[in-house]
């Protein structure tokens, strides 16, 4: 099937709403449901987690994502544990269940179960089943298709449509990403499927690319791998700059960024440079597990992906390098007291999966450091307290976390941490800004600010 590009339709031009079932109400499923409802579709969400469905029925959003609560207010989206009832009336079924990492491979157990339940429930004339979960190429047109056909006793392309529609939202800005996507990618089994999916996305002002199922699956991995590689590329230079006095990575990259090749689509500076910034590494539920799955899947086909493996290896080393940078600045770190500010993997979310901040906490504890920690979200603080059972003092405020410490590491770019007085009350005011939160902010005299990608001179003990 040739790649097709639809022109963006004007915002606000809503077609007649379609009946949609969304299977899985995690970050992707619930954001998808809320945003599709916001443009006029009729949505029923399904989750096998009864507590989650009950919470949704009470109008509670089970996790933190900016703008989501407002979008779900007023009971716009129905929720149930009953896949059959939701699928029976749906024109489109979007499968959004998790595809986590299992020993470096992709775990498709939840997808298989969801596909079987959807298959058993397929009725009506040509409902379209679309996989939105991230899956290795070939999954939709082999595994998912086989399960759907077996369980429904129907044929793909004749009795139901089959699509692969990868999701590119980023946690923390998921609602905005979904409402104003850079592009919508539609892998479609056939033209009829493609037409139904195009109708679903008509209200969204974005280029719509229609392609084969495997290509759509591959787009998602290629996009994630590119971003992760850019981050690791920059962090490799960060580590090098940190080892050499009188080089500031930020200045080096500022010069690199001025290459027009890296411009955003508007000719502005928002393009690839967003990922060419030193930091403490990437985390979250996607990059680490998607890179692992891609590499595992390629290896099984006899193909090595050394660039992808290196991007992962560099990222794995990054928290240790950051702790080393701090140790160098403090003249040793054992028995020091260090605060970690920001525990979720990025601002605007409560997701702790593969969080670099938590990795720092682990590395610091392993080095005999007394660790205090803070995150602006109460639910995050509660979970980290439970996770570390007293080994880490998780405080209600950032000021309490830094009080009496030898250093603080800013691990998440929460704007809350961008304050002149952040180091007030510290025993030794050393701030390691892992995310550039304090960039351009004048800090009071006496505060040592360690920036990523710069050499850290040893600071004096008070
Ligand atoms: N989180 C992201 O930022 C993001 C972005 C793009 C793509 N993705 C991909 O989207 C998929 C979902 O990610 P997520 O972060 O939303 O996952 P998640 O783990 O937050 O949520 C998955 C939900 O699916 C439910 N579920 C599992 N099996 C089910 C079944 N048979 N029937 C009904 N519900 C079921 C679970 O109870 C859970 O609530 C993954 O493949 C992920 O890689 C995630």
In CATH terms, what is the fold-level topology of the largest domain?
A: Rossmann fold
Beginning-to-end CA distance, first to last residue: 69 Å
Number of strands: 17
How many domains make up the coordinates?
A: 2
Main structural class:
alpha/beta
The biggest beta sheet is recorded as:
9 strands, mixed
Tell me the number of helical segments per DSSP (H or I, 4 or more residues long): 15
Strand order across the biggest sheet?
Answer: 1-11-10-9-8-5-2-3-4
Q: In CATH terms, what is the architecture of the largest domain? A: 3-Layer(aba) Sandwich
- The overall pLDDT average reads 92
What's the short story on this structure?
The protein has helices at 27-38, 50-57, 68-72, 83-88, 109-121, 139-152, 174-179, 191-200, 213-242, 249-257, 287-300, 306-330, 356-366, 378-388, 398-402, and strands at residues 4-6, 19-23, 42-46, 78-80, 92-95, 101-102, 105-106, 128-131, 161-164, 184-188, 208-211, 337-341, 370-374, 392-394, 407-410, 430-433, 448-451. The chain is an alpha/beta fold.
């Amino acid at each position: 099937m040739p790649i097709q590009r639809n022109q963006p339709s004007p915002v606000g031009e809503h077609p007649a709403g379609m009946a949609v079932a969304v299977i899985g109400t995690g970050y992707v499923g619930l954001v998808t449901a809320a945003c599709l409802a916001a443009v006029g579709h009729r949505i029923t969400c399904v989750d096998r987690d009864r507590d989650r469905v009950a919470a949704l029925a009470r109008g509670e959003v089970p996790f933190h994502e900016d703008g989501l609560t407002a979008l779900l207010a007023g009971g716009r989206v129905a929720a149930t544990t009953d896949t059959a009832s939701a699928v029976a009336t749906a024109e489109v079924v979007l499968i959004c269940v998790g595809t986590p990492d299992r020993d470096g491979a992709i775990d498709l157990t939840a997808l298989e179960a969801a596909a079987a339940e959807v298959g058993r429930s397929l009725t009506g004339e040509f409902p379209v089943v679309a996989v939105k979960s991230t899956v290795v190429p070939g999954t939709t047109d082999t595994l998912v298709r086989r399960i759907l056909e077996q369980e429904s006793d129907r044929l793909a392309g004749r009795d139901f449509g089959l699509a692969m529609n990868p999701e590119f939202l980023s946690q923390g800005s998921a609602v905005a990403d979904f409402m104003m996507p850079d592009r919508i990618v539609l892998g479609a089994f056939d033209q009829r499927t493609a037409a139904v999916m195009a109708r679903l996305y008509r209200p969204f002002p974005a280029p719509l690319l229609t392609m084969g199922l495997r290509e759509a699956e591959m787009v998602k991995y290629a996009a994630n791998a590119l971003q992760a590689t850019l981050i690791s590329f920059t962090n490799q230079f960060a580590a090098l700059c940190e080892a050499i006095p009188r080089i500031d990575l930020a200045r080096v990259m500022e010069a690199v960024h001025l290459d027009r090749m890296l411009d955003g689509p508007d000719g502005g500076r928002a393009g690839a440079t967003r990922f060419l910034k030193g930091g403490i590494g990437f985390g979250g539920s996607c990059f680490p597990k998607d890179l692992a799955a891609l590499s595992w899947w390629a290896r099984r086909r006899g193909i090595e992906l050394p660039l992808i493996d290196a991007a992962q290896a560099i990222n794995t080393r990054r928290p240790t390098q950051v702790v080393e940078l701090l140790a160098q600045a403090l003249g040793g770190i054992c028995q020091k007291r260090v605060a970690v500010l920001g525990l979720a993997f990025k601002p605007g979310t409560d997701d702790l999966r593969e969080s670099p901040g938590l990795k720092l906490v682990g590395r610091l504890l392993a080095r005999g450091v007394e660790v205090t920690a803070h995150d602006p979200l109460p639910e995050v603080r509660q979970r980290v307290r439970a996770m570390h059972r007293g080994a880490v003092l998780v405080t209600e405020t950032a000021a309490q976390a830094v009080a009496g410490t030898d250093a603080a590491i800013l691990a998440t770019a929460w704007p809350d941490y961008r304050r002149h007085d952040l180091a007030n009350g510290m025993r030794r005011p050393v701030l390691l800004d892992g995310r550039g939160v304090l960039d351009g902010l004048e800090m009071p005299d006496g505060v040592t600010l360690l920036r990523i990608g710069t050499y850290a001179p040893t600071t004096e003990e008070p």
